[in-house]
Specification:
With 180 residues, this protein is an all-alpha fold. The chain is rod-shaped and about 65 Å long.
């Protein structure tokens, strides 16, 4: 029982020692529904989408003293933060979500990029393809991060690649272009 903020404080105190940020559960769960094995330290739930834990929402936990990072560690995923009107920037800066986690949580890549901190190199490291980032990042930002063949496969024309500074030799050697 208790008021919403009291429940948030109680849940935060109960869970703040857990690191449940690497585990892979998706859905709406109460803390009581989690298997006992998840109560061990360093268990992580990436991409989890808890909407409440023991009846307390993210907002309850925050009003009870938890940080956004602590809420993430408790099992609240990027989708839940987004549905609670947090921005991609807040999720990146205050909860530490990566670009792919934000995208899986329902943020679009334009908002993720606008959140700052994610270069073309960063999103490549997180597995984004040229096709996914084309139109959000410029060819100038992409050209030093992806191979010419990947850029061709994503639909960049020879004229665009040449305009971005690739030489005919590079296009032939690295891009599989034939002819003069």
């Amino acid at each position: 029982g208790g008021s919403v903020p009291e429940r948030g404080v109680a849940v935060f105190r109960k869970l703040k020692k857990l690191d449940m940020s690497n585990c892979g559960l998706v859905g709406t769960f109460s803390f009581k529904a989690l298997p006992v094995s998840l109560e061990h330290k360093n268990v992580h739930l990436p991409g989890s989408h808890f909407t409440s834990i023991d009846g307390a929402t993210i907002r309850d936990c925050l009003s009870g003293g938890a940080t956004m990072q602590a809420c993430r560690n408790m099992g609240f995923g990027a989708e839940t933060f987004r549905k609670e009107s947090f921005t991609a920037k807040q999720c990146r800066k205050e909860a530490g979500f990566g670009a792919r986690e934000l995208e899986v949580g329902g943020f679009n890549l334009k908002d993720i990029r606008a959140s700052g901190g994610f270069t073309a190199s960063d999103v490549r490291k997180e597995g984004f393809t040229v096709a996914e980032i084309k139109g959000v990042y410029s060819i100038g930002e992409i050209k030093d991060v992806y191979r010419i063949g990947e850029m061709r496969n994503a639909g960049f024309s020879l004229a665009q690649l040449k305009g971005a500074g690739f030489s005919c030799k590079q296009l032939k050697d690295e891009g599989g272009v034939t002819g003069k």
